[in-house]
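chain below, 110 aa
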Amino acid sequence: MKPLMLVLLLLIVGSLFSQTYVFICEEYPPYEYKEGGVVKGLDIEVLDLVCKEAGISYRVEFYPWERCLMMMRNGQRDGIFAILKNKERQEFLNYPDEPLSYDKRVLIMK
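prediction:
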């Protein structure tokens, strides 16, 4: 194989594996939000650590919740987070076997 062809082949194959994954969510401080144009939050910190460990390039985009669900249903983005598991969502989303976090809601009344 000619050297130029080999280099082009390696560039093409390399570009297939150097994808930037796009995760979406709705702003929900303190878990995920933008401050001064910078994505921040507790869930963002976990996502950042996991992606760095796995060598994954990513970015986070914020949309209204219904648009997030529509985009995931249509396969327009790679992942969504801060989403509760239910039967309807299991039809178009793959959830991990173990939860990544737990959410407990408490109401305190007088």
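The beta strands are 20-25, 33-35, 38-40, 57-62, 79-80. The two ends are 79 Å apart (CA to CA).
thats it, cya
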